[in-house]
Sequence to fold (300 residues):
Amino acid sequence: MGVIPADLLKQYLRIDKRYSINPVEEPFFDVPTSLDLDKMEYTPPTSEQIEAQARENLAASYSEKKLKEELSYQKAVNDAEIKKQQIAAVLEADKQKTDADFEAEKAALKLKLINSGLSRSSVFDNAVLSIDASCQEQKQLLEQQAQSKINAVDAEVLKAEEEKNSAIANIEQVFLLDLEAEKAKLTDDVAKKQEEVLKYNNTVDEKQATYKRTWNSAYIAAQKQHTESATALQDIAVNQGYEIIQNYIFDDKTLFTKDYFLNFTPQEAVNALAAARTDFENQLGVTNYNELVGFFQERT
Fold:
């Protein structure tokens, strides 16, 4: 079982109102009471949110600058470690060479004293002690020289650390200055946005107010027209019978229904009219309904 399409029912209501004989009922007036305009909603951020946003905006740039200083310092530390390893390696090689040189000197001395028949004398023992002492002194000198070089390398690392700390402190000072500037910019942006929203919403209010005044005027006019029309139709109903008005209603509805279904194929129109026959007969009258169905059947 079908139903009458909503577009048709709306038009039928309009026709019923047009031919109403009740001058005090509401007129057919389907004009929206207000414009479909939405106001802008904007919640300004708090000062804490503004500062957080400002920090976020600046964070990447300043983190990159600080990282650059940290990497530069770490490179200095790594280079220093390599230098100290090299110094230690050279020291070890020099000490081994010193040991070898003095061992060779002792061997040569022993051979000389053997040839002189003094290899088991106190002269040999004292000479060996002297050579060992000289060897130890030489190695101590090498260690002192190596330590001096290591101290110089450590001083370079300390200087690099001081330069890093100074650079980072400067970066943080500049960051604080830029942070204040960024907060001021964001605060200004918020104020501009609030002004924009207020201006737009005021415009919406003005448009709504203007539309409401126009709507009221149009409604009053429609109400007046309905009252005048209903009063005249009431006279006709009293003097000539309501059937005349009912026929006006049936004829207007039938004409509109015909125009509506001309947008469909004749068979589709016949099917739709048949599916809601009882409702259409009530709206169009039995005679008009049958004529309308016949009109479309002739074209199938």
Remarks:
- The chain has a mean pLDDT of 92.
- Residues 139 and 250 are 128 Å apart (CA to CA).
- The chain is about 85% helix and 0% strand.
- The chain has two domains: 6-30+241-297, 47-203.
